[in-house]
Amino acid sequence: MQGPFSDPLVFIPLVTLLGLCVGSFLNVAIHRLPKMMEREWLEEAAALRGDTLPGLEGERLDLSRPRSRCPHCGHMISALENIPLLSYIALRGRCRQCKTPIGLRYPLVEALTAALSGYAAWHFGFNPATVGALIFIWTTVTLAFIDFDTQLLPDNLTLPLLWLGLAFNLRATWVPLADAVVGAMVGYLFLWSVYWLFKLITGKEGMGHGDFKLLAAIGAWLGWQILPPVILLASLAGAVIGIGLIVTKRLNRGTPIPFGPYLAIAGLIALFHGTAINAWLPTIIPVS
Fold first, then answer.
1. pTM for the whole thing?
2. Which of 43, 227, 260, 266 could form a disulfide bond with 233, CB atoms 3.0-4.6 angstroms apart?
């Protein structure tokens, strides 16, 4: 379908701007989803005991309410203070009321989401693949930062991501549906097997169940063929970044390192360059 929006000079900037706005919303999701999950768990536990939790009966908590506020002074964030990137620059990275520094995370997520969205528009062009790529990007970015903060990968993100991958591949947007189904199964069962093998040997849990579901989702989007390089890339990214954090003393040796962010990084690389990676790997890994 042709039209004014199909022009790359129009389409790419529009998608980049959309990504910037979505990035602002992702900051809210990254911050609130774990809190919403915790509240839900507490309410369910209380209901099973037949108790009530008066402290949780106050202000509603979801992705739209309450309004965003400064965590230090409670200052309500106005619309003008909530413009992606521009407000952070105008406020010089500080709360307008109490002057407490605003975390660099917020503009980072906005800029990263905008850059990846614009790159998807350029890479895939004006077609349904870009829509799927944007959904994949926005969800994996959210999952990566939530897992980094809390070591949680919420089912209400990983499972819809998996099913949407299968849905997009009904018409073989990235891979034939059979490859997508096998990718979901193999992705889940591979890390599930690693988890149980590690637990049998050490008696400890080496990863969370959310990692199984995230790799299954990547397999559902990109097919089973992409799973070996994704696992390899995620392991390399985890090793390099983990060692870097330990060397710079930002992470203790005994501190658990979430695997989800590295799976997300590998999945995003595979989304754009999976075909090239699969063609390149046999040239550097001889097979007899």
1. 0.90
2. 266
pLDDT reading at 215 higher than 70: yes
d(CA 19, CA 133): 12
Secondary structure of the chain: what % helix, strand, coil (to 5)? 70, 0, 25
- pLDDT of 31-78, one tens digit each? 999 988 888 887 777 777 777 665 555 567 777 777 777 777 777 887
Indicate if the pLDDT at residue 288 is higher than 50. no
- The percent of residues above 70 in pLDDT, for the chain, comes to 91
Instruction: For residue 139, give both structure tokens.
Output: 């969800």
Give DSSP secondary structure letters for 14-66: HHHHHHHHHHHHHHHHHHHHHHHHHHHHHHHHHHHHT---GGGSSS--SSS-S
Q: CB atoms < 10 A from the CB of 175, how many?
A: 24
Cis peptide bond N-terminal to 34, omega within 30: no
Q: Which helix (H) or strand (E) holds 274?
A: helix 260-284
Looking at the predicted structure, is the pLDDT value of residue 287 above 60? no
- How far CA 288 is from CA of 80, 282, 285, in Å, comes to 62, 11, 10
Strand partners, 164: none
Distance CA 198, CA 205 (A): 7
Q: What is the dihedral of CA 255, 260, 263, 269, to 10 degrees?
A: -110
Using one digit for the tens of pLDDT, what is the confidence trace for 224-233? Answer: 999 999 999 9
Instruction: Identify the CA nearest to 126 among candidates 7, 18, 281.
Output: 7
Please check the confidence at residue 1 and state whether its pLDDT lies above 60.
no
Closest CA to 214 of 230, 229, 198, 199: 230
SS3 sequence of 147-213 = HHHHCCCCHHHHHHHHHHHHHHHHHCCCCCHHHHHHHHHHHHHHHHHHHHHHHHHHCCCCCCHHHHH
Residue with tokens 């992606």: 84
